[in-house]
Amino acid sequence: MEPIQMVDLKNQYNKIKSRIDEAILTCINSTYFINGPEVAEFTGSLQQYLGVKHVIPCANGTDALQIAMMALNLQRGDEVIVPSFTYVATAEVIGLLGLVPVMVDVDPATFNITVQQIEEAITSRTKAIVPVHLFGQCVDMQPIVELAQKKGIHVIEDTAQALGAVYTMNNGDRHFAGTIGDIGCTSFFPSKNLGCYGDGGAIYTNNETLSARLSMIANHGQEKKYIHKYIGVNSRLDSIQAAILNVKLQHLNEYAAARQAAADYYDEALGGIDRLEIPYRSPNSTHVFHQYTLKVKDNLRGKLAAFLKSQGIPSMVYYPLPLSVQEAYKGIGIVNSIPVTEDLCTCVLSIPMHTELTTDQLGYITDSIRSFFNEN
Fold first, then answer.
1. Among residues 171, 358, 137, which one has the least CA distance to residue 265?
2. Quick check: helix, strand or coil at residue 363?
3. Tell me, what's the pLDDT at 156?
4. Using an 8 Å Cβ cutoff, are 138 and 167 in contact?
5. pLDDT tens-digit series, residues 190-240
6. Which of 59, 357, 368, 346 is nearest to 219 (CA)?
7. I want to staple 128 with a disulfide (CB 3.0 to 4.6 A). Which of 154, 175, 255, 362 is the partner?
8. Binning pLDDT at 50, 70 and 90, where does residue 333 land?
């Protein structure tokens, strides 16, 4: 059995090596390293895959969030509601732009923000909401979008961990994560479900006016060359990364199926263990399992993680601290009561989840976890 990785990019690459190498070499030989034809091809393919009218590629997922907030013309002091249980990038751009992050609690089952927490946090200064589709499962978006429309608030979806997840509306309509609110943002960081071999990101919208503004802001605010309509940034997806993504996008459904099969194995093997809670599956969203995150009870997380390490099994804590207690965010935001987040930060543990997990590896991981709980 090969060594177990949290994310096995090497074996994933080996399966499509010839196509990846050819795509990279073609790009290098063309010397169109910035805004080459590969970027236009990937943009069109992702638009078609998502069923969204506009995709704007950019340099990374953090830039995608910042450009989205800039395009919505948010002003210093405006409040933006975010979950307290998320990666720092979600709040980072809010702070950079002089906005006020309003950090609210999450649902204990899905780990996602809910309309109830959002509604309690809205004030006259609230201008945007950032639902984060955490770990690969969609936020319950319909009530959030309905509330936002009623209150005149923008919705920016952070779908860096859930590209390919599908949300079902009450009427049966199905939409990909990131295509439901005003703007969707994603990352192509290598470990993401659709990852390039460096940094990359994209922004989506169905709004023509917003699309034009997003495109300009991502390119120095240019309406056309040397004519700058907005203050912008320099944020581009380079052609080599787009070439890689063109190949990998064709495998995205296959990758999701592999992750879901691994999750099904974990569910079956670990579902009956006391003091361990497997991931909840929302009835109105598919789950693409960017992470497979357990809740470990009775303060056993550290001991379990140490045991797994001794058995050659990696694990990670996403996330050990609420955003609100990170030193960088003390005093700049508003924090509502977050007991669920505080509890999750003490008990969550993610175990290996990627497209290359073998049955032998899955069996070894789950047997090891069962043996731990049998002895503790």
1. 358
2. helix
3. 98
4. yes
5. 999 999 999 999 999 999 999 999 999 999 999 889 999 999 999 999 999
6. 59
7. 154
8. confident
Calculated CA dihedral for residues 43, 49, 53, 59, nearest 10 degrees: -30
Which amino acid would we find at residue 224?
K
Q: What is the pLDDT averaged over residues 12-38?
A: 97
3-state secondary structure 117-144: HHHHHCCCCEEEECCECHHHECCCHHHH
Q: Are 374 and 270 in contact (CB under 8 A)?
A: no
How many Å separate Cα 219 from the centre of its chain?
A: 24
- Separation in Å, CA 172 to CA 6, 113, 131, 188, 349: 35, 22, 21, 29, 34
pLDDT of amino acid 332: 86
| Rounded Cα–Cα distance for residues 369 and 304 (Å) | 8
Helix (H) or strand (E) holding 60: none
Cα gap 294→348, rounded to integer Å: 6
